[in-house]
Amino acid sequence: MHWYLDVLKQYVAFSGRARRQEYWMFMLFSIIISVILAIVENLIGIPNVLTGIYSLAVLLPSLSVLFRRLHDTGRSGWWFLISLIPVIGSIVLLVFTCLDSTEDNQYGPNPKTGANNTSV
User: Fold this and answer.
1) Please, are residues 35 and 43 in contact by the beta-carbon 8 Å criterion?
2) Rounded to two decimals, what is the model's pTM?
3) In angstroms, rounded to a whole number, what is the distance separating the alpha carbons of residues 8 and 14?
């Protein structure tokens, strides 16, 4: 859960780098929360109110962690625009987010070798 909270604390930090674990744990918790909210909405009969509010609330943190994830693979954050290309763009972006970290690059030192990370 701390991965999710760390991303929310850095909700407008578009610079720097984010490891795969940080990105995918944030995405996992976001999906779980969205599913729970959708179930609650269906139970009480309000269509897409809670999920809509939640989606707006995590829009900036989601973009921020995506940009930092792309930076970690050595790409500019503007590569997220490739997702606008139907099907192919989303697949390419998925591949980029699954790639391993590059060594130190223009966006900062490799987060895997940082002092705050104990695992490699």
Assistant:
1) no
2) 0.85
3) 12
Asked whether 69 and 77 are in contact (CB, 8 A), the reply is: no
Tokens linked to 85: 């290309």
- Answer for the pair 71, 77: CB distance below 8 angstroms, yes or no: yes
Instruction: Name the nearest CA neighbour of 24 among 111, 97, 110.
Output: 97
> Rounded to whole angstroms, how far apart are CA atoms 93 and 56?
21
Residue-wise pLDDT tens digits, 13-51: 888 899 999 999 999 999 999 999 999 999 999 888 999
Least Cα distance to 38 among 113, 98, 30, 81 occurs for 30
**E strands of 18-118, at which residues?**
none
Candidates 116, 26, 112; CA nearest to 65 is 26
- Tokens 């930092």 correspond to 68
- Cα–Cα–Cα angle for 7, 12, 37, rounded to 5 degrees: 50
The predicted-structure confidence for 81-96, as pLDDT tens digits, reads as follows 999 999 999 999 999 9
